[in-house]
Design goal:
Shape: globular
Main location: membrane
Largest sheet: none
CATH topology: Growth Hormone, Chain: A
Strand content: under 5%
Protein name: Major facilitator superfamily (MFS) profile domain-containing protein
Structural class: mainly alpha
Keywords: Membrane, Phosphate transport, Symport, Transmembrane, Transmembrane helix, Transport
GO molecular function: phosphate transmembrane transporter activity; symporter activity
Distance between the termini: 12 Å
Family: Belongs to the major facilitator superfamily. Phosphate:H(+) symporter (TC 2.A.1.9) family.
Number of strands: 0
Radius of gyration: 24 Å
CATH class: Mainly Alpha
CATH superfamily: MFS general substrate transporter like domains
Number of helices: 21
């Protein structure tokens, strides 16, 4: 590259070193925490219903009323969406590093506060829990654009996709750990405080101490984030931000000389030449150069999350159908938490975690575009395969479970990983964090549609079969057909997303251009460092 800065060239050409792995762990621990916090709520909603909405006259244990269930499950998504937009913008304004510690502290404080939710009435406890989970989501939202951007800007060009995918793959371990923590805590409480099944003794099926279970599970989420805070604060600002946005070549060279352990020259005159033309996010120039790319990243992430998060909704129905979850009234409260956690842990172990690491292994061989297209294709195939002979699957439960696990596998070895990676690569440094935040927020909007739209849509068409408090819906079969169609649309919009494999970030975004009044063509010469 004629105009490529030496410091950026050194980063692009660097061999995989120890600092790459520390960056993966430091950024990945945020993702571990965020998956733990977002997904652990599904482990405890049944318990919250039993504790706070107990009705001695009902033949079934207490459940959260629909509106409260929606609020408890969904308020963190709303916070995440707001956090992605706000911290994405802030990461470009103040720098990645300065904002990075702030999001982590917010996650730690709100994890602990969620577990300390209090109130005189059940509604009071739920309102406090929702308040803290909103702000927890806000912190988690900031982690998306910042972790992706930091990893993208630190990585070399040969393994950048695999490194960003590895950060995202920590989500799988977060979901898995959530299940394991719930298993340990519920087993310990079940052993210490014996309780009868609900249909034997309604009054004493929930031990008074069970109220500690959900609090401990939620508060544990603060621990991994707290452990990495010190290391996050010690990470230097990325050279791409310092040089291309803050325009301080000397600082960028000094920071990366320490990280790479080589001597690098500060090239201030080159920094002054490169990309002085500062077009903004809402300019015609941005629309011309990056508009279609932004449409591609936002639409694919939106469509993916509709399918991904609504699939999670069917878990408890599927678990009950195949006999993994006995009927609620045949279990005590602690036993139910244990059984739900066991089922979720098995799904995470078999479908969720392997999918992420397949992406890490193959992304630099197959490319982002191929993996995303393939993932959407197989997700739509399996959704239709579940939907069309839906009656058949009611009697062939093991087949249904295999198909269901494969849907998750191809979401993670597919668009769930690539929609996170690509926005961190295809936008200019000064707008990278903002555009990643916008793409991620579109995804969370899809998650809200998936979680709540399909919670209502998947209800039975027969009034006598709907869950308590819900209107009739279109039924699970039709809901799965809609999701199959959503995945087909995802394939279509993937065509707007460019392939970025093996190219330097500045080559992809056009930031190596000089401002001499005309568009410069790129040369692909290697510059000696």
């Amino acid at each position: 590259m004629e105009n490529q800065l030496g410091v950026l060239n050194a980063l692009d050409a660097a061999k995989t070193q120890w600092y790459h792995f520390t960056a993966i762990v430091i950024a990945g621990m945020g993702f571990f925490t965020d998956a733990y916090d977002l997904f652990s709520i599904s482990l405890i909603t049944k318990l919250l219903g039993r504790i706070y909405y107990f009705d001695a006259h009902s033949a079934k244990p207490g459940t959260l009323p629909p509106r409260i269930a929606a609020a408890v499950n969904g308020v963190a998504f709303c916070g995440t969406l707001a956090g992605q937009l706000f911290f994405g913008w802030l990461g470009d304004k103040l720098g990645r590093k300065r904002v990075y510690g702030l999001t982590l502290m917010l996650m730690v404080i709100c994890s602990i506060a969620s577990g300390l939710s209090f109130g005189k009435s059940p509604h009071g406890v739920m309102a406090t829990l929702c308040f803290f989970r909103f702000w927890l989501g806000f912190g988690i939202g900031g982690d998306y654009p910042l972790s992706a951007t930091i990893m993208s800007e630190y990585a070399n060009k040969k393994t950048r996709g695999a490194f960003i995918a590895a950060v995202f793959a920590m989500q799988g371990f977060g979901i898995l750990t959530g299940g394991i923590v719930a298993l340990i805590v519920s087993a310990a409480f079940d052993h210490a405080y014996k309780a009868h099944p609900y249909n034997v003794d309604r009054e004493h099926s929930t031990a008074p101490q069970a109220d500690y279970i959900w609090r401990i599970i939620l508060m544990f989420g603060a621990l991994p984030a707290l452990l990495t805070y010190y290391w996050r604060m010690k990470m230097p600002e990325t050279a791409r931000y310092t040089a291309l946005v803050a325009r301080n070549a000397k600082q960028a060279a000094a920071d990366m000389s320490k990280v790479l352990q080589v001597d690098l020259n500060a090239e201030q005159e080159k920094v002054d030449k490169i990309g002085r033309e500062q077009f903004g996010l809402f300019s015609k120039e941005f629309a011309k150069r990056h508009g279609l790319n932004l449409l591609g990243t936002t639409s694919t992430w939106f469509l993916l999350d509709i399918a991904f998060y609504s699939s999670n909704l069917f878990q408890k129905d599927i678990f009950t159908a195949i006999g993994w979850l006995p009927k609620a009234e045949t279990m005590s409260a602690t036993k139910e938490v244990y059984r739900v956690a066991k089922a979720q842990t098995l799904i995470a172990l078999c479908g969720t975690v392997p999918g992420y690491w397949f992406t890490v292994a193959f992304i630099e061989h197959l490319g982002r575009f191929t993996i995303q297209l393939m993932g959407f294709f197989f997700m739509s195939v399996f959704m239709f395969a579940l939907a069309i002979p839906y009656q058949h699957w009611k009697t062939h439960n093991s087949g249904f479970l295999i198909m269901y696990s494969l849907t998750f596998f191809f979401a993670n070895f597919g668009p769930n990983a690539t929609t996170f990676i690509v926005p961190a690569e295809i936008f200019p440094a000064r707008l990278r964090s903002t555009c990643h935040g916008i793409s991620a927020a579109a995804g969370k909007a899809g998650a809200i549609v998936g979680s709540f739209g399909f919670l209502y849509a998947a209800q039975s068409t027969h009034l006598d079969k709907v869950d308590k408090g819900y209107p009739t819906g279109i039924g699970v079969k039709n809901a799965l057909m809609v999701l199959g169609a959503v995945n087909c649309l995802g394939m279509l919009f993937t065509l707007l997303v460019p392939e970025t494999m093996g190219r330097s970030l500045e080559d992809i975004t056009g930031e190596n251009e000089e401002d001499n009044g005309h568009q410069q063509t790129f040369s692909v010469e290697k510059v000696p460092v």
